[in-house]
Prior knowledge:
8-stranded mixed β-sheet; 16 helices; 14% strand
Amino acid sequence: MRPASLDFLFSLERFGMKFGLASMARLTEALGHPDAAFNSILIAGTNGKGSVTAMVETALRAAGHRTGRYTSPHLVRLEERFVIDGSEVATDVLADTAARVQRVIEALVASQTLEALPTFFECTTAIAFELFRDAGVQVAVLEVGLGGRLDATNIVSPIAGAIVSIDFDHQAQLGDSLASIAAEKAGIARNGIPIVCGQMPAEARQVIATICRERGAIMIDADRDERVAARVAAAQPLALPGRHQVANAAVAVRLLDALNEQAIQVDASAIVAGLSETRWPGRLESFNVQGCMVLLDAAHNPAGARALAEYVRELAPDGVTLVFGAMKDKAVAHMLAPLRSIARRVLCTTAPSPRALDAASLAAIARDVGLEADVIPDPFEALEHACAAARPVVVAGSIFLIGPIRERLARDILR
């Protein structure tokens, strides 16, 4: 039975997304500013921010710092979002902390200091700050949820930040141009702090450079630093597979260099550990299911799908069976188009989320882009059918699909 405080937390999901920092400002003030109890590093970007967050936290921990890591969404368990010194927070500790935050929220609403309940993400962010303060965390690496400028994580005063990549995703919230998306991500910039940027289109880079200049932040181009590229090459193989992880690793290395310059010491061996020992499940992660290779990847936008296709073309040049599920608000046709080059057949399924696009609608879109598509609404049935074919299987399209399937595979329940 789930603790009442976590029931309250999940009940906030009905409020969806909300942009703005007013609620977070009132909530963190009422909690006694737990966000000020540790050094914070913000990681923003369209893709790769989770990987960079994991690499940077792993390196900081290897260097002897007491670390916190806050990421979203989770694959299976809420506890995955809150990691202290490499370990997920215990459920009872999470529940107790959530209860404390709940009491503060209810008091703020009763006094009309808060006009409405916060969102699920605002609440989990406040819980993360409380957990990190309670645990005596020295450095917290925080993955930005959406955008940057108005994201709940941006209530902190970071000592450094990164913008890993810029591409199209969440246009309804961030705008329909790369320039507008870049402007939202660059909202993490602060006077005097380094902002490390990865590979991105010139249009986006120019916007970020302008905002950094206006705010007095120090923009650092990781992908234009040949010395960083050489260090990443020397650390091969990276723990996380895929060519795109080379670019992510360059951002992580340059960000760790910037922290070194601020007396957050991370020696060379710790940086190598960050690249070679990081674990980040559900990202090009392989399982063997009765002799069938199953590759899980949380590619959930067109850029992620392109990176997945590039990886699979080398791994399985004869093609794969694709199990695909996506959310209603995603650019499904643009996600499926690059996967056409690797998928001999796509089994469209319905991810276990109220936001999921139904399997039949997905199949119609898949056929429109030239794929041979079948409809199998149940994800586990779709996986079983895929594994029966004489080729490797790729499961992709949404983290809400990857999570339950990964849990099943990790428990070796699938027969």
